[in-house]
Amino acid sequence: MIxxxxxxxxxxxxxxxxxVVLFPVGxxxxxxxxxxxxxxxxxxxxxxxxxxxxxxxxxxFARAMTVSMIIAVCVVAGQVLLxxxxxxxxxxxxxxxxxxxxxxxxxxxxxxxxxxxVPLYYQFRTFGLTNTLPGIILVHLGMGVPFGxxxxxxxxxxxxxxxxESAELDGAGALRMLRSMAAPMARxxxxxxxxxxxxxxxxxxxxxxxxxxxxNQTATVxxxxxxxxxxxxxxxxxxxxLIVAAPxxxxxxxxxxxxxxxxxxxxxxx
Amino acid sequence: xxxxARPATPAETRDADVRRRPLRRRTRWIGLGFAALPLAVxxxxxxxxxxxxxQYSFYKWDGVSASTFVGLDNYRSFVTDPVLRSTLGxxxxxxxxxxxxxxxxxxxxxxLLTRAKQPGMAVYRWxxxxxxxxxxxxxxxxxxxxxxxxxxxxxxxxxxxLDSLAKTWLGDxxxxxxxxxxxxxxxxxxxxxxxxxSGTSAIAxxxxxxxxxxxxxxxxxxxxxxxxxxxxxxxxxxxxxxxAALRTFDLVWITTxxxxxxxxxTPAVALYKAAFQNPQVGLAAAIGVVxxxxxxxxxxxxxxxxxxx
Amino acid sequence: MRFHKxxxxxxxxxxxxxxxxxxxxxxxxxxPSTVSTDVAKAGNVTLKLTDFxxxxxxxxxxxxxxxFQTKYPNVKIARTTEDWGQLNSTLNxxxxxxxxxxxxxxxxxxQSLGTLAKGNLVLNLDAYAKAYGWDKKVPTTIxxxxxxxxxxxxMGSGSWFSTPMARTSLIGLYYNADKLKKLGxxxxxxxxxxEADAAKAKAAGEVPFEYGSLDGSTTVLLGLQALLADxxxxxxxxxxxxxxxxxxxxxxxxxxxTKKWADEGFFPPKFNGIDYQTAVANFVGGKGVFRWExxxxxxxxxxxxxxxxxxxxxxxxxxxxxxxxxxxxxxVISAKSKHPDVAAAFLDYLMSPEAGQMAADKGLVPxxxxxxxxxxxxxxxxGESAGAxxxxxxxxxxxxxxxxxxxxxxxxxxxxxxxxxxxxTPDKFTAAVDxxxxxxxxxxx
Lengths: 270, 309, 445
Prior knowledge:
Chain A is mostly helical. Chain A is built from twelve helices and no strands. The longest helix of chain A has 33 residues, at 61-93. Helix content of chain C is 44%, strand content 11%. In chain C, helix 2 links the parallel strand 1 and strand 2 (75-81). In chain C, helix 2 runs antiparallel to helix 15 (353-361). The longest helix of chain C is centred in the C-terminal third of the chain and has 19 residues, at 426-444.
């Protein structure tokens, strides 16, 4: 279908890009295997594989990863539910006052957390929700609503109109239409939302830093033990960083097919 | 949603049955019922604190003891302080690297990846998205090493005889900001690519066939068919990346702390310093409010432009 | 409809605005008037301690806790550790929580301790200072670091709001002993000797001072300033005496000398692209002959401690020894603590010679412990504790310069980079320092 020359050019350009992308990742992996505190690269024979178990123990990842996992799973579940409701309302049913409400929702995608963290903390303290998992889950959910609505609204709007009309003629209510038709049809977009939501929650640093202490620290914050006031152990930090990145990478590999097909289905077609 | 009268292109005709009109008036109240729960959570976590932030921005407050009402003083110092004002200029540069460059690269890679079914494309797709998956703390540390005076980048430049180009990237008053920006490009372009791949696959194949029958090469095909078909995705990508540029915090914080001098200070870093390092919560809130307002304007403009069909 | 909603939103916002931020926390907590030093009487008590100590420092606090619990079996101390940045930025929030810590490590200066004291989040410790005799035990220059006047306009006098400990963190000069031997140089005993040695090292092809300015490291500048400035004036400047100006505390001399060293090539090539961590790693890895550094920051292991020495140089005017130094943390008691008496006893224990000996045993610099025994095999620790002992004896501490205003650390770091790049003159640098502090003082009212 396309010429051999073009095909070769494609590969060359893509490979150059891939090398540029992978090079920093490679540097990082090498740093994680360095026996030196500063993460200086060493030969293959000197690789310090023990860094991973040292990092695992020093940062208390067994506990921290459990906390992170609980938060991420709850947030993903809640996020999908809220996004389905909100996306369906804004995308299919229409919402009273949506000309005002929708931009307000969009605004949330752009507010930086730093801008609201102080009042947010005081507010949650009055609810007694600081340093609790339900508290931080609620914050994640609230911060995630804008993207969730935005994303599922676009996904629902991309579904053929005729399906909704015939279902309505059959007398299906709004909720039944969402449950039995719209949600299943938008499945690829939902998979994508799950992946993104998991990734963002898992990688969160700042929110956990402010809201969670002691036993409740998450994996990303636990990485901080390698960064003292003066001394940073870059090799252990890198090893720990790889451990923290592992669940997201696994999920990404597992979901890739569905994820891409979610994108391919035109989920975010405006 | 402004409807202009002009002949429909094939893409729009195809779009027509996808176009959404509200089912009926009454569903809009049911819709509000559906949206109530997400909106309530959102309001509680984002809007109420945001309103309080607006309120804080009129006070001089250390975050702990009693506050003094100072009117617009915090906003005034944001506008008059040359250092704080310069952060907006830095953001403009960063937008080039966080938004424009990734979009160009994303378009390029998406075009290459979707043009034909070649083996190995899934691998490339996976690689390009990889930076998105990594924690920002980790990314910042990696690049700090790469940009070091005797780091891999300078070593590579010297190896190919470009000694004169080797420099202390993050410590250089001219180069620190672009060097930071390139980190953003590296992170963001995979995300743009995935958006564009999705958009490209939603473009009707007939359009490509028609273009090929007209004898269009890959370049002309891209400009005549692919690019116009990606308008929606471009809007999404622009909105997300521009606001990401405006919000840049972790990368700067971990690599340069805003230096050398104040040459890489961003509003978010200034905000963080004010809120958590120097107890000036009011000033921090004012910076946050200005940032939020800018973001809203950008989003509204982009949405307006892109939804005009 | 829409407008109606907007109206409601505006009304909500206005009603929120009716109560100004922070107005809920102005209730005054006075210094406890009746205090007890009898810990055994307190019954079974559990205290929560939150600190930012890891590695050797973490080991130290663990052994101090064990020591205290052995002494008072009725007390249990539950320790949480957080990284320095996290604790630093969230301590004021944590102390407002009912479930927050009883005892915590704060940072001295306005930015952390001052804000906590002013917000009544930490106890005024005067009654305990009297009961335990801290005023006699602690050198005056260290005491001042923990005090604020009760109107919170002045730091460095007034009431105790935190305590130091039997440890210290100094800025001083480290040297690579092997390199000195190879170059045939004896450890310098004065600033002039140091400059001569640096020139000799440079001529021999070595980097005299390992250093990097990428993140605005100020150790060279502040280390030199302590050798050049008048002790009392420097203390007064930092504690906010507006009649003292930066030129009076040798700021211009210090920055000029620092810049001169940079221009003479005493720092590594391209030092503006080297970050702090890399510079530390380079020095420990054998690059450079000298390094200005905070004690405890090199992270030397037992074997390395035999190869690196430490010197607390005397003042250039040879009027005794003055050094930048403070306890590595300001211990505070939460205003919400239910057992302040027990907490104060623990703070007192942290200042005891026992705690100092435990520090030396872990390779940390002991202070206020004249009879401490340091392993002779550790060249660096021997030098460090000798330095601390000299400063204790001379009462020669000056606080970190960045305590003078919350933004001072940024101001120093940013402008230092400008000076190195030739974009700012030393005079302008000094003026910028004054402007930063005086703006802050003016805002204090």
